[in-house]
Amino acid sequence: MAISYSGLSAFHAVAEAQSFTGAARTRNVSQPTLSAQVRGLEDAYGVRLFDRAGRQVKLTPLGQSLFVITARLFAAEDEAQSLLAGSRTLQRGHLRIAADSATHVMSTLARMRERYPGLTFSLTIGNSSEVVDQIMDFAADVAITARANSDPRIHSIKLRSDDLIAFVSDQHELARHEHLPIEAFAGQDIVLRERGSITREVFENRLSVAGIKPANLLEVQSREAVREAVAFGFGIGVVFASEFRPEAGLKRIVITGAEFDVGEYVVCRAERQRLPLVRSFFETVQDL
């Protein structure tokens, strides 16, 4: 049985919008038409792809698996259209960016907006592991991450190097220091990002290599939460130097006695690096 393209396309639109109404508006068709296309796909195979409760729709387990496939399918279709006709002049188009810090990407987006006013952008912030996953899942076109990657499916260039630094509340016992050896972290409370964060991974590795054991570790889910926890005296925070913003009540400290240099990389799926939008992003990053 040949699968219905219109049915797949309708399913993907609804799954992406999480709404029949929103998908119909995006595709510029009536909701009954869209509903009929999805129902036709379900009936043809005797399956249920959505659980419907009023205006709310939720993917069934089978629907979730199908959505992974259609995401790849329609990403490839968009790629082909872009390559053949769409954005070669970059007069229009939409670029999806994932980054482990807004600090590392905003200057590039600002430059691209100046050069190509017709482009639109969406930006997702996550830890280094999450942004690579978004590239692999076709949820983002390009990403900036501190995680070096040797996967042959990923095209990567090194953007810059950055150093990890510590910072404390100005009431902390270590606030009088400009520099601290890594040994000074022994027995101290530390505030770090969640697992998957390259900041945490590198810092914990350096402590382990040096045989340093902190007292307590407070795990939080964002850089903003790290800053707030440190400001309220929960311990020593660790961030990239480029991410630290001087403000009242916080003191920056350089860590010595170990290598805290970490690379930052621009990545995309290898087969997508020649797309005009993706290529332009890489070129703009390198220009800056």
Automatic annotation (TrEMBL):
Q: Which family does it belong to?
A: Belongs to the LysR transcriptional regulatory family.
MF GO annotations: DNA-binding transcription factor activity; transcription cis-regulatory region binding
Species name: Bosea lupini
Q: Which domain of life is it from?
A: Bacteria
Keywords (alphabetical) are: DNA-binding, Transcription, Transcription regulation
Protein name in the entry: Aminoethylphosphonate catabolism associated LysR family transcriptional regulator
One matching Pfam family is LysR_substrate
Is Transmembrane set as a keyword in this record? no
Gene3D superfamilies, sorted: 3.40.190.290, Winged helix-like DNA-binding domain superfamily/Winged helix DNA-binding domain (1.10.10.10)
Q: Where is the HTH lysR-type domain?
A: 3-60
Q: Which PANTHER family match?
A: HTH-TYPE TRANSCRIPTIONAL REGULATOR, LYSR FAMILY TRANSCRIPTIONAL REGULATOR
